[in-house]
Amino acid sequence: MKPNDRDVLLVVDVQNDFCPGGALAVPQGDEIVPPVNRLAAGFAHVVLTQDWHPPGHSSFASAYPGKRPFDTVELSYGAQVLWPDHCVQATQGAAFLPGLDVPHAELVLRKGFVPTIDSYSAFRENDRKTATGLAAYLRERGFERITVCGLATDYCVLYSALDARQAGFEVALETAACRGLDIDGSVGKALAAMREAGVRLV
User: Fold this and answer.
1) Tens-digit pLDDT profile for residues 141-178
2) Cα gap 67→43, rounded to integer Å
3) Confidence category of residue 1, pLDDT binned at 50, 70, 90
4) Which of 30, 40, 131, 149 has the largest CB neighbor count within 10 A?
5) Distance separating alpha carbons of residues 58 and 95, to the nearest angstrom
6) pTM
7) Are 61 and 202 a contacting pair, CB within 8 Å?
8) 83-93 residue pLDDT tens
């Protein structure tokens, strides 16, 4: 049975920099493209997210002399993991993977464009206060159920799924159409956190 008009697929950050050869590669990240395409073909409504950082973003290790990627700094909103420069606006790294075939996507939501705040979630910036507007958009469109997939399971997918639940949506995670960084078992912890929040793992 095809998902109906209360269902939307949220495809998170399927971008060059998050795939092998990219600046912040998720192992086997490119492998999710065929399952994402198959999944999207079964949904009438699809939203894509796109990490979209300005040069010198506050989450880039290069912005701090002496700091390295995966170090942590304190920003105004708390601890922030530092990343290699990635998904810089209008670069090839920020582009969607060439094989991603979702021509009927109705919205591309760009996140992480505020220079001083990182953004993992499709719903809220990392200060946990600044909304992206996605929840209001989905409510106004009448969606009730969100299926999430994409990169990376233990960061942007995790935060998007948790925030979708907190916003009152039913949420399912398509595990075959996700890959994670898996730093110190972070994928297992992310799946447990999502399950505990009421996300259905498919």
Assistant:
1) 999 999 999 999 999 999 999 999 999 999 999 999 99
2) 43
3) very low
4) 149
5) 21
6) 0.96
7) no
8) 999 999 999 99
DSSP state of 84: -
Q: Which of 30, 51, 85, 111 is catalytic?
A: 111
Instruction: Reply yes or no on whether 13 is catalytic.
Output: yes
Task: Give 176-186 pLDDT, tens digit per residue.
Answer: 999 999 989 99
Bridge-partner residues for 96, per DSSP?
A: 15
Longest dimension (CA), the chain: 55
Is there a cis peptide before residue 177, judged by omega within 30 degrees of 0?
Answer: no
Measured in residues, the chain has a length of: 202
Phi, psi for residue 25 in degrees, rounded to 5: -70, 130
User: Does an H or E element contain 8, and which?
Assistant: strand 7-12
- The encoded tokens of residue 185 equal 């078992």
Q: Are 152 and 181 in contact (CB under 8 A)?
A: yes
In 24-179, where do the E strands start and end?
46-51, 72-75, 78-81, 107-111, 145-151, 170-179
Residue of 19, 87, 156, 178 marked active site: 156
Three-class secondary structure of residue 135 per DSSP: helix
What pLDDT is stored for residue 4 in this prediction? 76
